[in-house]
Design goal:
The complex is a heterodimer.
Chain A: E1 3-9, E2 13-16, H1 36-46, E3 54-58, E4 62-66, E5 70-83, E6 86-87, E7 92-96, E8 101-117, E9 147-149, E10 160-161, E11 171-176, H2 186-194, E12 197-203, E13 207-211, E14 228-229, E15 234-237, E16 243-246, E17 253-254, E18 258-262, H3 267-272, E19 278-283, H4 286-301, H5 303-306, E20 308-309, H6 314-327, H7 336-339
Parallel strand pairs in A: 11-19
Antiparallel strand pairs in A: 1-4, 1-9, 2-3, 3-8, 4-8, 5-6, 5-7, 5-8, 10-20, 11-18, 12-13, 12-19, 13-16, 14-17, 15-16, 15-18
Chain B: E1 9-13, E2 17-21, H1 28-44, E3 51-54, E4 58-62, H2 70-82, E5 96-104, H3 112-118, H4 123-132, E6 135-140, E7 147-150, E8 165-168, E9 172-176, E10 179-182, E11 187-189, E12 192-196, E13 217-222, H5 225-233, E14 240-243
Parallel strand pairs in B: 5-13
Antiparallel strand pairs in B: 1-2, 2-4, 3-4, 5-12, 5-14, 6-7, 6-13, 7-10, 8-11, 9-10, 9-12
The chains are: A alpha+beta, B alpha+beta.
Chain lengths: 340, 245
């Protein structure tokens, strides 16, 4: 079987994909990768569908061996990676030969790192998805000794990279109204929008707790609501006034009011913010939020066209440029670096 | 019990969809309206609706509001909403009636008598209510496939316990606020453990992973602890499903 053999693995490693939609009415949330952008980036680097399943890694990765020649890509939170002892760039695609050892170490920045393989992981797909949803008994964490089946790869280049995105250290997050936003008094919403929050260490695939100094954001009017539908990115305010951003594995309904909903394109920034990172929230109208999200959707669709060759050796790159300048044979509008 | 003065409201939920709400309290009529309205909109098969669901008092339609105009979708929903009084609408056809055997009381459901007392009922009267009321799946949630069933009579408007029972097992019937919840998995809870069944609400490997759907009806039948043990020993649940016309 074509597969990735797991020799050693960290405690938070699981197969994920874009989730399991279609079961909201049955109380099963979509789940799937915490950082959906990273899934799209890996797919762009390998020239394959973003529906291919990936390995999501929290904290550290593991030691893996390829049963056959494979292409891989590494995206999301930056981690130390080596292929047969040589450092492998993050945010890039690589080749791992048959029997090659891939070692992925601790996270350096961000929270969720991703390992993609050409052809995608082909683990069982209960209810139509390979997304691991532990609390619902769908899939299980990866453990040492597992052999993760890998689909056939139609092949393609490696040594490609994407421009580094700035979503791994917190920052500004745009939100639009949720159904209970107007139940919160104007002054509470205004204070929410001017507060610097810190990502609490108590964060997981269900939700991210936000800490702040000063008073909480509880609203007496909003406390007596009937339990209502939850969508990914909802910011619920619990009884003591603490905000939680609800993530991929949140429940489908909840009894705490929502002050707003993070735009899907900004949710990876919340997912990736490391413990203690500062997050700020900016309210947009539904119309402005729609426009921002539509532009982001277009940007994500262009990711495959944004892939560029990884330049491994800056010294060689300088020599190349010098040679081209001397020769005078290169078009000024033609970027050699983009051609590799 | 109905809320004649409540005007249904339509709200966006982030960019993920649109919610139509039929009450600001969890009443039986608001729930019926939400289920009926969801069924009616689903029957229209609008292509922008990726999926729908219903909660205790609302119908939700998942629509990508980055791609589809909220105002236009809202207007179409408002037309359907105005076409009739949804609190008086019949529920969708094809729903199921489940008869589920359960033990009430004994060490399998140790809070039955305590719940009866909280409801101001004798054990016999409480048992008659829990097995004689045809309950409706108000909504599924908290865990996959887990039903909130209603609506019991006013006596059963008993509050949740202040403290949690650490671990009530899967298949348990727990009661509070005029509802019965049938647990999909072992759960800590403030609801009182009044009955125990062998019914599995979520069967990820089965052809029908979610046996119950919102709007289905459930009637419990009283069996002995010995009978439940026999059902469990055979790996079954003893439940019977009929389709309602």
């Amino acid at each position: 079987m074509r597969g990735l053999v797991v020799h050693q693995v960290g405690p938070g490693v699981a197969v994920q994909d874009l989730g399991r939609p279609g079961f909201l009415a049955m109380g099963l949330t979509r789940g799937g990768a915490a950082d959906v952008r990273a899934v799209h980036e890996g797919a762009a680097l390998l020239g394959q569908s973003p529906d291919c399943a990936v390995l999501e890694m929290v904290g550290t990765g593991g030691t893996f061996e390829a049963s056959e020649d494979m292409r891989i890509a590494l995206t999301g939170a930056m981690m130390n990676a080596q292929i047969d002892g040589a450092a492998a760039a993050w945010n890039a695609s690589h080749r791992v030969p048959k029997g090659g050892q891939l070692v992925i170490g601790p996270t350096r920045t961000g929270t969720y790192g991703y390992l993609h393989v050409g052809g995608g992981f082909e683990t069982p797909a209960p209810l139509g998805s390979r997304a691991t949803h532990q609390s619902c008994g769908l899939g299980a964490l990866v453990t040492a000794g597992d052999v993760l089946p890998v689909g056939s790869d139609r092949g393609g280049d490696v040594g490609l990279t994407l421009p580094q995105d700035a979503r791994f250290e917190g920052g500004g997050v745009r939100i639009v109204p949720s159904m209970q936003t107007l139940d919160f008094a104007d002054d509470i919403r205004a204070r929410f929008a001017t507060t610097e929050f810190r990502r609490d260490p108590r964060a997981n695939r269900q939700g991210v707790r936000l800490d702040s100094d000063g008073a909480g954001f509880a609203n007496p009017k909003a406390l007596s609501i009937v339990s209502e539908v939850i969508v990914q990115g909802d910011i619920q305010i619990t009884g003591d006034g603490t905000p939680f951003v609800l993530m991929a594995e949140s429940q489908t309904t909840g009894g705490y009011p929502r002050i707003g909903t993070v735009l899907p394109c900004d949710l990876p920034r919340v997912a990736q913010a490391p413990a203690g990172a500062v997050l700020r929230f900016e309210f947009l109208s539904l119309e402005d939020g729609r426009d921002v999200q539509a532009r982001a959707n277009a940007d994500w669709a262009r990711l495959p066209a944004s892939v560029v060759p990884l330049v491994r050796d800056p010294a060689m790159m300088q020599d190349l440029l010098k040679y081209q300048l001397v020769s005078g044979a290169v078009s000024a509008t033609h970027s050699e670096l983009d051609e590799g | 019990m109905s809320e004649p003065d409540f005007t249904p409201i339509i709200r966006s939920v982030g960019l993920a969809g649109v919610l139509v709400t039929f009450g600001d309290r969890a009443t039986d009529s608001a729930n019926r309206a939400a289920i009926a309205f969801r069924g009616a909109v689903d029957a229209l098969a609008w292509p922008e609706v990726a999926e729908s669901s219903s909660t205790l008092v609302s119908a939700f339609f998942r629509v990508d509001l980055a791609e589809h105009s909220y105002d236009a979708f809202r207007a179409r929903l408002a037309d359907v909403l105005a076409s009739r009084d949804w609190t008086q609408a019949g529920l969708p056809a094809g729903r199921a009636l489940w008869t589920i055997p359960a033990v009430f009381g004994t060490d399998r459901a140790p809070q039955f008598s305590e719940a009866a007392e909280a409801a101001g009922l004798t054990d016999a009267a409480a048992l008659a209510d829990l097995t004689g009321t045809r309950l409706r799946v108000l909504t599924l949630g908290f865990a996959p496939g887990q039903p909130y069933l209603g609506t019991l009579g006013a006596a059963w408007d008993i509050p949740r316990q202040v403290g949690l029972t650490p671990n009530v097992p899967a298949g348990a019937l727990v009661a509070a606020v005029r509802q019965v919840c049938l647990f999909a998995k072992d759960t800590p809870t403030g609801w009182r453990h009044v009955g125990q069944s062998a019914f599995a609400c979520f069967r990820p490997d089965a052809d029908v992973p979610f046996p119950l759907a919102p709007g289905d009806e459930v009637q419990f039948s009283d069996i002995s602890a010995a009978e439940l043990a026999r059902i469990e020993a055979h790996g079954g649940d003893g439940a019977v499903r009929e389709v309602l016309g």
